[in-house]
Amino acid sequence: MSIADELDLRAFLRENVYSRVSTDEVQFELKFFVARQPSAYGDLLPWRLSAGDVNRLVREEHARFGDIHFVDAVENKWTLCLKRFLALKWAASVPQSEYDFFFTADSDSFVRLAALSRRMHHKRPDLLDPRRTFSMWGDMKANWLHWRKANDSSAPDEQYDGEWYDFPIGMGYLMSSALTARLNDVSDRLPHNVPYYSDDVLIGSWVAEYAPETLLMSDKGGFHDPPLHGTQPFPVDYSTVLIHHIDINEMRQLRAMPEWNGEWLPAPQSDESTTSAWRKP
Protein backbone atom coordinates (compact mmCIF):
# COMPACT_ATOMS: atom_id res chain seq x y z
CA MET A 1 0.00 0.00 0.00
CA SER A 2 1.70 3.21 -1.15
CA ILE A 3 0.97 6.90 -1.77
CA ALA A 4 2.04 8.55 -5.00
CA ASP A 5 4.52 11.02 -3.50
CA GLU A 6 6.45 8.29 -1.65
CA LEU A 7 9.03 8.26 -4.42
CA ASP A 8 12.07 7.99 -2.16
CA LEU A 9 10.43 5.39 0.05
CA ARG A 10 9.45 3.10 -2.83
CA ALA A 11 12.97 3.41 -4.22
CA PHE A 12 14.41 2.33 -0.88
CA LEU A 13 11.96 -0.53 -0.42
CA ARG A 14 12.51 -1.76 -3.96
CA GLU A 15 16.31 -1.66 -3.69
CA ASN A 16 16.92 -2.66 -0.07
CA VAL A 17 13.95 -4.65 1.25
CA TYR A 18 12.22 -6.43 -1.65
CA SER A 19 15.26 -7.27 -3.75
CA ARG A 20 18.09 -9.79 -3.40
CA VAL A 21 16.04 -11.94 -1.03
CA SER A 22 17.23 -15.54 -1.17
CA THR A 23 14.98 -17.48 -3.55
CA ASP A 24 15.79 -20.61 -1.57
CA GLU A 25 13.60 -19.24 1.23
CA VAL A 26 10.91 -17.21 -0.52
CA GLN A 27 9.85 -16.28 -4.05
CA PHE A 28 7.43 -13.43 -4.66
CA GLU A 29 6.11 -10.77 -6.99
CA LEU A 30 6.04 -7.18 -5.73
CA LYS A 31 3.32 -4.65 -6.52
CA PHE A 32 2.81 -1.12 -5.16
CA PHE A 33 -0.83 0.05 -5.11
CA VAL A 34 -0.93 3.78 -5.84
CA ALA A 35 -3.79 6.25 -6.43
CA ARG A 36 -3.56 9.72 -7.97
CA GLN A 37 -2.07 12.59 -5.99
CA PRO A 38 -4.84 15.13 -5.20
CA SER A 39 -4.60 18.44 -7.05
CA ALA A 40 -4.43 20.48 -3.81
CA TYR A 41 -1.19 18.73 -2.88
CA GLY A 42 1.72 21.07 -2.22
CA ASP A 43 -0.21 24.36 -2.40
CA LEU A 44 1.16 25.50 0.97
CA LEU A 45 4.60 23.96 0.46
CA PRO A 46 6.10 25.58 -2.64
CA TRP A 47 9.31 23.51 -2.50
CA ARG A 48 7.35 20.32 -3.10
CA LEU A 49 6.43 18.94 -6.47
CA SER A 50 3.00 19.69 -7.89
CA ALA A 51 0.41 16.92 -8.05
CA GLY A 52 0.84 16.79 -11.81
CA ASP A 53 4.59 16.35 -11.46
CA VAL A 54 4.14 13.60 -8.86
CA ASN A 55 1.67 11.69 -11.03
CA ARG A 56 3.97 12.04 -14.05
CA LEU A 57 6.96 10.76 -12.08
CA VAL A 58 4.98 7.76 -10.85
CA ARG A 59 4.12 6.87 -14.44
CA GLU A 60 7.81 7.13 -15.35
CA GLU A 61 8.66 4.99 -12.32
CA HIS A 62 6.27 2.29 -13.49
CA ALA A 63 7.66 2.45 -17.02
CA ARG A 64 11.08 1.68 -15.54
CA PHE A 65 10.21 -0.96 -12.96
CA GLY A 66 6.77 -2.28 -13.94
CA ASP A 67 5.70 -2.88 -10.33
CA ILE A 68 3.00 -0.22 -9.75
CA HIS A 69 -0.73 -0.93 -9.86
CA PHE A 70 -2.59 2.29 -10.60
CA VAL A 71 -5.82 2.70 -8.65
CA ASP A 72 -8.39 4.76 -10.54
CA ALA A 73 -9.09 7.16 -7.65
CA VAL A 74 -7.71 10.23 -5.93
CA GLU A 75 -5.79 9.57 -2.74
CA ASN A 76 -8.08 10.33 0.22
CA LYS A 77 -9.40 8.73 3.40
CA TRP A 78 -11.58 6.29 1.41
CA THR A 79 -8.96 5.00 -1.00
CA LEU A 80 -7.05 2.59 1.22
CA CYS A 81 -9.96 0.16 1.48
CA LEU A 82 -10.30 0.23 -2.30
CA LYS A 83 -6.57 -0.50 -2.60
CA ARG A 84 -6.86 -3.49 -0.27
CA PHE A 85 -9.82 -4.79 -2.26
CA LEU A 86 -7.97 -4.40 -5.57
CA ALA A 87 -4.84 -6.00 -4.10
CA LEU A 88 -6.92 -9.02 -3.13
CA LYS A 89 -8.29 -9.19 -6.69
CA TRP A 90 -4.78 -8.87 -8.14
CA ALA A 91 -3.49 -11.75 -5.99
CA ALA A 92 -6.49 -13.91 -6.84
CA SER A 93 -5.86 -13.40 -10.55
CA VAL A 94 -3.17 -16.08 -10.08
CA PRO A 95 -4.60 -19.60 -9.57
CA GLN A 96 -4.29 -20.70 -5.94
CA SER A 97 -2.41 -23.79 -7.13
CA GLU A 98 0.50 -21.55 -8.19
CA TYR A 99 1.31 -19.63 -4.98
CA ASP A 100 1.05 -20.07 -1.22
CA PHE A 101 0.29 -16.73 0.44
CA PHE A 102 -0.89 -13.23 -0.40
CA PHE A 103 1.05 -10.77 1.75
CA THR A 104 0.14 -7.09 2.04
CA ALA A 105 2.04 -4.44 4.00
CA ASP A 106 1.92 -0.71 4.60
CA SER A 107 4.70 1.33 3.02
CA ASP A 108 5.96 2.39 6.47
CA SER A 109 6.69 -1.26 7.32
CA PHE A 110 10.17 -2.77 7.17
CA VAL A 111 9.89 -6.46 6.27
CA ARG A 112 12.30 -9.40 6.54
CA LEU A 113 10.73 -11.82 4.08
CA ALA A 114 13.25 -14.65 4.50
CA ALA A 115 12.90 -14.47 8.29
CA LEU A 116 9.11 -14.47 7.92
CA SER A 117 9.26 -17.68 5.89
CA ARG A 118 11.47 -19.36 8.50
CA ARG A 119 9.25 -18.16 11.34
CA MET A 120 6.10 -19.55 9.76
CA HIS A 121 7.68 -22.98 9.24
CA HIS A 122 8.95 -23.02 12.83
CA LYS A 123 5.94 -21.68 14.72
CA ARG A 124 2.92 -23.06 12.91
CA PRO A 125 3.66 -25.77 10.37
CA ASP A 126 -0.02 -26.73 10.62
CA LEU A 127 -0.89 -23.51 8.76
CA LEU A 128 1.42 -24.36 5.90
CA ASP A 129 -1.09 -26.11 3.68
CA PRO A 130 -2.10 -22.77 2.17
CA ARG A 131 -3.46 -23.99 -1.15
CA ARG A 132 -6.16 -26.03 0.56
CA THR A 133 -6.61 -24.45 4.02
CA PHE A 134 -8.00 -21.03 4.92
CA SER A 135 -5.46 -19.26 7.15
CA MET A 136 -4.44 -15.70 8.05
CA TRP A 137 -1.27 -14.59 9.83
CA GLY A 138 -0.45 -11.23 11.45
CA ASP A 139 -1.01 -9.27 14.66
CA MET A 140 -4.68 -9.75 15.52
CA LYS A 141 -7.12 -7.64 17.48
CA ALA A 142 -10.88 -7.98 18.01
CA ASN A 143 -13.82 -5.88 16.83
CA TRP A 144 -17.55 -6.09 16.29
CA LEU A 145 -18.10 -3.68 13.36
CA HIS A 146 -19.60 -5.14 10.20
CA TRP A 147 -20.52 -3.62 6.84
CA ARG A 148 -22.94 -4.41 4.05
CA LYS A 149 -22.68 -2.99 0.54
CA ALA A 150 -24.80 0.05 -0.20
CA ASN A 151 -27.40 -0.23 -2.97
CA ASP A 152 -25.87 2.87 -4.53
CA SER A 153 -22.26 2.07 -5.48
CA SER A 154 -21.29 5.73 -4.97
CA ALA A 155 -22.60 5.79 -1.38
CA PRO A 156 -20.64 4.67 1.70
CA ASP A 157 -21.22 1.07 2.67
CA GLU A 158 -23.52 0.60 5.64
CA GLN A 159 -21.97 -0.08 9.06
CA TYR A 160 -23.69 -2.08 11.78
CA ASP A 161 -22.79 -3.85 15.03
CA GLY A 162 -22.53 -7.62 15.03
CA GLU A 163 -20.67 -10.56 16.51
CA TRP A 164 -17.05 -10.19 17.63
CA TYR A 165 -14.27 -11.43 15.35
CA ASP A 166 -10.50 -11.07 14.98
CA PHE A 167 -8.92 -8.83 12.36
CA PRO A 168 -5.29 -8.33 11.28
CA ILE A 169 -3.69 -4.97 12.05
CA GLY A 170 -2.98 -3.53 8.62
CA MET A 171 0.76 -3.01 9.10
CA GLY A 172 1.08 -6.35 7.32
CA TYR A 173 -0.63 -9.72 7.17
CA LEU A 174 -0.80 -12.90 5.11
CA MET A 175 -3.75 -14.77 3.65
CA SER A 176 -3.41 -18.30 2.32
CA SER A 177 -4.06 -18.63 -1.40
CA ALA A 178 -7.10 -20.75 -0.59
CA LEU A 179 -8.54 -17.91 1.52
CA THR A 180 -7.72 -15.31 -1.13
CA ALA A 181 -9.52 -17.41 -3.74
CA ARG A 182 -12.53 -17.83 -1.45
CA LEU A 183 -12.85 -14.07 -0.90
CA ASN A 184 -12.42 -13.44 -4.60
CA ASP A 185 -15.30 -15.84 -5.27
CA VAL A 186 -17.59 -13.58 -3.22
CA SER A 187 -15.91 -10.30 -4.17
CA ASP A 188 -19.16 -8.93 -5.62
CA ARG A 189 -20.51 -8.97 -2.05
CA LEU A 190 -17.46 -7.56 -0.26
CA PRO A 191 -18.00 -3.99 1.00
CA HIS A 192 -14.98 -1.75 0.45
CA ASN A 193 -16.32 1.81 0.38
CA VAL A 194 -15.42 2.68 3.97
CA PRO A 195 -13.02 5.31 5.36
CA TYR A 196 -9.41 4.86 6.43
CA TYR A 197 -8.86 3.49 9.97
CA SER A 198 -11.61 0.98 9.27
CA ASP A 199 -9.67 -0.82 6.54
CA ASP A 200 -7.99 -3.30 8.90
CA VAL A 201 -11.28 -4.12 10.59
CA LEU A 202 -12.94 -4.51 7.21
CA ILE A 203 -10.52 -7.30 6.26
CA GLY A 204 -11.44 -9.22 9.40
CA SER A 205 -15.15 -8.75 8.72
CA TRP A 206 -14.74 -10.24 5.23
CA VAL A 207 -13.11 -13.34 6.69
CA ALA A 208 -15.60 -13.65 9.56
CA GLU A 209 -18.52 -13.36 7.17
CA TYR A 210 -17.38 -15.54 4.28
CA ALA A 211 -14.66 -17.84 5.68
CA PRO A 212 -15.37 -18.25 9.42
CA GLU A 213 -13.44 -21.53 9.54
CA THR A 214 -10.16 -19.65 8.84
CA LEU A 215 -7.23 -20.58 11.08
CA LEU A 216 -5.81 -17.40 12.65
CA MET A 217 -2.26 -16.85 13.84
CA SER A 218 -1.75 -13.75 15.98
CA ASP A 219 1.97 -13.03 15.99
CA LYS A 220 2.68 -10.07 18.27
CA GLY A 221 6.37 -10.88 18.51
CA GLY A 222 6.80 -10.94 14.75
CA PHE A 223 4.57 -8.04 13.63
CA HIS A 224 4.73 -4.85 15.68
CA ASP A 225 5.74 -1.22 16.12
CA PRO A 226 9.16 -0.58 17.67
CA PRO A 227 9.42 0.85 21.20
CA LEU A 228 8.26 4.50 21.47
CA HIS A 229 6.43 4.23 18.13
CA GLY A 230 2.78 3.75 17.31
CA THR A 231 0.26 1.82 19.38
CA GLN A 232 1.63 -1.75 19.14
CA PRO A 233 5.18 -1.42 20.57
CA PHE A 234 7.31 -4.50 21.11
CA PRO A 235 11.09 -5.03 21.33
CA VAL A 236 12.90 -5.50 18.02
CA ASP A 237 14.87 -8.76 18.05
CA TYR A 238 15.59 -11.81 15.92
CA SER A 239 11.92 -12.85 16.02
CA THR A 240 10.78 -9.56 14.48
CA VAL A 241 9.78 -9.96 10.84
CA LEU A 242 7.82 -6.72 10.29
CA ILE A 243 8.43 -3.35 11.96
CA HIS A 244 5.73 -0.74 11.49
CA HIS A 245 5.39 3.06 11.85
CA ILE A 246 8.98 3.93 10.93
CA ASP A 247 10.40 6.44 8.45
CA ILE A 248 12.94 5.89 5.72
CA ASN A 249 15.92 6.94 7.88
CA GLU A 250 14.96 4.38 10.51
CA MET A 251 14.61 1.78 7.76
CA ARG A 252 18.15 2.57 6.61
CA GLN A 253 19.40 1.92 10.14
CA LEU A 254 17.56 -1.40 10.30
CA ARG A 255 18.87 -2.45 6.89
CA ALA A 256 22.42 -1.75 8.08
CA MET A 257 22.16 -3.92 11.19
CA PRO A 258 25.01 -6.45 10.99
CA GLU A 259 22.86 -9.06 12.75
CA TRP A 260 20.51 -9.09 9.76
CA ASN A 261 23.13 -8.71 7.07
CA GLY A 262 22.67 -12.25 5.83
CA GLU A 263 18.97 -11.71 5.10
CA TRP A 264 19.80 -10.20 1.69
CA LEU A 265 22.22 -11.39 -0.97
CA PRO A 266 25.10 -9.08 -1.96
CA ALA A 267 24.39 -6.72 -4.83
CA PRO A 268 26.17 -7.57 -8.11
CA GLN A 269 28.97 -5.17 -8.94
CA SER A 270 27.19 -4.10 -12.12
CA ASP A 271 23.88 -3.53 -10.35
CA GLU A 272 22.74 0.05 -11.01
CA SER A 273 21.60 1.71 -7.82
CA THR A 274 18.07 3.05 -7.66
CA THR A 275 17.85 6.82 -7.30
CA SER A 276 14.91 8.96 -6.33
CA ALA A 277 13.00 10.96 -8.90
CA TRP A 278 12.29 13.71 -6.39
CA ARG A 279 14.79 16.08 -4.85
CA LYS A 280 14.15 19.40 -3.13
CA PRO A 281 15.70 22.26 -5.08
Walk me through the structure.
The protein has 281 residues and is of the alpha/beta class. It has a domain at 77-263: Spore Coat Polysaccharide Biosynthesis Protein SpsA, Chain A (Alpha-Beta Complex), CATH 3.90.550. 28% of the residues lie in helices and 20% in strands. The protein is built from seven helices and eleven strands. It has a four-stranded mixed β-sheet. A three-stranded mixed β-sheet has the order 4-11-10, with no helix packed on it. Strands 1-2 form a two-stranded parallel sheet. Helix 2 links the parallel strand 1 (32-36) and strand 2 (68-74). Helix 3 crosses helix 5. The longest helix has 15 residues, at 51-65. The protein is globular and about 55 Å long. The protein starts with 6 loop residues before the first helix and ends in a 26-residue tail after the last helix.
Key features of this structure:
four-stranded mixed β-sheet; 281 residues; disordered C terminus; alpha/beta; 7 helices
Rounded Rg: 19 Å
The average pLDDT score comes to 89
Helical proportion?
Answer: 25-40%
Low-pLDDT sequence parts:
273-281
Separate helix tally: 7
What is the CATH architecture term of the domain at 77-263?
Alpha-Beta Complex
Shape: globular
Strand order of the largest sheet: 3-8-5-9
Roughly how many Å apart are the termini? 28 Å
Briefly note the structural class of the backbone: alpha/beta
In terms of DSSP E residues, the strand content is: 15-25%
Order of helices and strands: HEHEHEEHEEEEHHEEEH
Family: Belongs to the glycosyltransferase 31 family.
Membrane topology: Single-pass type II membrane protein
Main location: Golgi
GO molecular function: hexosyltransferase activity
